[in-house]
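dumping this here before i forget
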Amino acid sequence: MEKFKAGTYKQQGGYKSFTPFYVNQYFAWENPIIDVLLEQAGRLLGELNAYADIIPDVDFFIRMNVSKEARDSTRIEGTKTELDEVVLPQEEIDPERRDDWEEVQNYIEAMNFAIAELPNIPLSMRLLTEVHKRLLSGVRGKNRGPGEIRKSQNRIGGSSFADAIFVPPSAPEIPDLLGDLEKFIHNKSLHIPELIKIAITHYQFETIHPFLDGNGRCGRLLIILQLINTNILTKPVLYLSTFFEKNRDTYYDSLTRVRTTNDLEQWITFFLNGIVETAQHGIDTFKEIIKLQKEYETKILTLGSRTKNAQKLLQFMYTSPIVNVKTVERKLEISFSSANRLLKSLVELKILEEITGHTRNRLFVLEKYINLFRS
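structure:
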């Protein structure tokens, strides 16, 4: 990649925009660390796939992973929603924090839509514009062209284009740049490892910045779509937003360094380190989930006639780990008093914790389970 040229700066009146060069070409690298990381990433992703295949009802746990990804991806953009809030119903959210909560919910909806549509719509800007429309629907950015490729200039940071941190290519250049990127994503004749292509795709997408708003969230969502589309993952069980959020400054600096110094290898190294770290964490989480499931099952077997309802409730709470009595009453189709007694029993068994301290409108959390996703 020593010959790689990221692009060129173009004078646009009182500022310069950056136009990336096309990426639909063969890439080779010299840094041996990349080969080591590719080997580690492939092994760990294979192991992560195996856990996703052997865990019963894995989709329940995937939904919690999606909630965590949504929280972390939107946090990179400045929202402050905590994971506990993500899984709460809207009526339980502090009105002052509801805008952030709605952005996270939009991300969850957009991701679920994209994954469901991937077998029907090719991985393309056609799909991503539909994703973008859902991301910005009814939230901050709703007036910034949801679902539309931008027709005007945008920027990252600064109070004006003159002092912006980064100004992406002008609007007329975008169609050709996106066309080249789509060709690169689907070009099977390049014989480049898919993880390398995904890393380059993310860099190029963020550099093109094709929307007026929501580019970071769309670009991070594109990563999981590529992992599934290339059959590296059979289920959506790996998300890099936590790694990017934890290393936010390095993440942005690494993307910038490609544009300013043409050093693509350092970005790919950073990206692959993220895959390795995130996949290992995912494996560890699955191991803890299996252990916790066994602990819960052993405890609820002591509940006698309430065991069956306790099992149903636990299965529901693997997706929605915070409930109130009315939710239990409705989901299990039992009386209010029966729901109350069941929750009391699960608190006594130290499976659930009551988190309000109130006598009414109480909330119960599957604390040990949600802790697995907080870390």
